[in-house]
Amino acid sequence: MRVAEFRTPNDVKQTVLRFIDIFRLAALQVGCAADRLQGEVTLKQKPGHSSPEGSALTAVDLAAQDIILHLLHAALPEVAVDAEEDTETLRLFPKVDKYLPLVVVDPIDGTLNYATGSKDYAVMGAFVIDGIYTAAVVNFPARQQLFWAQRGGGCWQQRANSHARQVHLNGAPLKVNVTSHFPESWKSNLTKIGYQVQVSRCSAVDASAPANGRAAAAISLGKLGRRRAIGMLLTLEAGGVVKINDRDWQAEDPLHLSDRRGPIVVADSEQTASRILHALKNSAK
Predict the structure, then answer these.
(1) Whose CA, among 29, 158, 196, 237, lies 20 to 30 Å from 209?
(2) Could you state, in order of their start, the residue ranges of all structural domains in the chain?
(3) Which contiguous run of DSSP H or E holds residue 28?
(4) What does CATH list as the number for 175-284?
(5) Where are the alpha helices (DSSP H) in 56-167?
């Protein structure tokens, strides 16, 4: 199924909805298994990495990816896949090609958190067509929160044993999630303008912070990657904003951006994003 083979906009819509349905199921199944196995698995380190942060690995990561990819292959065998782990199930799919729809997968985002007993981990994936994120699914198993978004179709949330509801941004706490090694001067200036700064080690939590209700905003440094962009689509479709420096992110595949370096700010409003960026600029003076 090459992108050019979509006959009508309705073909695209139906394929996107199919992805959301199958990935929601996969994320729920993986989430149940991960929740039951938390505390029972050993933390390892990916080959070639010297630091555990960002390179942590458990058997659950690998098994979770296999579950997701087998379900995905049964429903959408013709898509390309960019997955976090190097498992044999990746060979079921064609190689990544700009003419193919792309699924981005992170079976356990926040592995270090997961392995140390934290609730802040997620199962997540996105569907990319013509270089644009068109759908995203994020499941927070330990919090029993499942989110999904469709470009132009809003952001939705479903809790355990409840009906799905559309997410609207209102009343997020005056908190800002930041990544590790965030400059102390930046933290100080954010505190001065009324925000509580907290360190997070899960990109899904950060990128979707306004949508998941954990914080009014989140800031990450470095280059924007494909996996962090998954949660960012939730923020956009819930009515928030995403800035790469001062530029609006419009759901582009980060690998197609000429400049994707941070600070990257997700926020519940344009006003919040502007206040935060102003505070960061003042810190740099």
Answers:
(1) 29
(2) 3-166, 175-284
(3) helix 9-37
(4) 3.40.190.80
(5) 59-75, 111-115
Query: DSSP letter string over 199-233?
Result: E---HHHHHTHHHHTS-SEEEE-SB--TTHHHHHH
Omega prior to 77 cis, within 30 of 0: no
Q: What pLDDT, in 10s, does the model give residues 160-198? A: 888 999 999 987 899 999 998 899 999 999 999 999 999
Sole residue written with tokens 């939730």: 234
DSSP 8-state symbol, 252: B
DSSP-derived secondary structure letter, 245:
T
Paired with 241 in beta bridges are 267
- Residue 95 CB partners (closer than 8 Å, separation 6+): 80
SS3 78: coil
User: What is the tens place of the pLDDT at every residue in 185-233?
Assistant: 999 999 999 999 999 989 999 999 999 999 999 999 999 999 999 999 9
Whole-prediction pTM = 0.93
For residue 122, give the nearest of 149, 102, 143 by alpha carbon.
143
